[in-house]
Specification:
This protein has 110 residues and is mainly α. It has one domain. It has four helices and no strands. The longest helix has 16 residues. The chain starts with 29 loop residues before the first helix and ends in a 10-residue tail after the last helix.
């Protein structure tokens, strides 16, 4: 909004992010996950799609399932730094990722 200062001007260290991803059934074979990932990344790399997303103030992240899982874990850790790892509450997205792409079903997802 024009003329409205950002929250970070008033709250030290304030940061807001939004991360979007696509999930699939936990029963989807790893080769299906990889194919879907390849096709989605191809669409996101298209110049017209990049331009449209830029119009929406969005920057696509082309990532593998493992890279996306690491991103979610890293962002969760960043926002819970004061608690020891064993005492941290798991983020809801981590639980969803475990349901959608468990390590046992998808060895390519860390």
């Amino acid at each position: 909004m024009p003329g409205v200062p950002p929250v970070s001007d008033f709250v030290l260290g304030y940061e807001a992010i939004a991360i979007n991803g696509i999930g699939v059934s936990r029963n989807m074979p790893a080769e299906g996950v990889n194919r879907l990932n390849t096709e989605i990344n191809a669409v996101l790399a298209d110049p017209q799609m990049k331009a449209r997303l830029a119009d929406l103030a969005t920057t696509p992240l082309l990532a593998s399932p493992a890279e996306f899982r690491r991103l979610i874990a890293d962002e969760t850790d960043k926002r819970q730094p004061s608690r020891p790892a064993h005492r941290r509450r798991r983020s809801p997205i981590s639980a969803v990722l475990d349901l959608l792409a468990p390590k046992a079903k998808h060895p390519n997802v860390s």
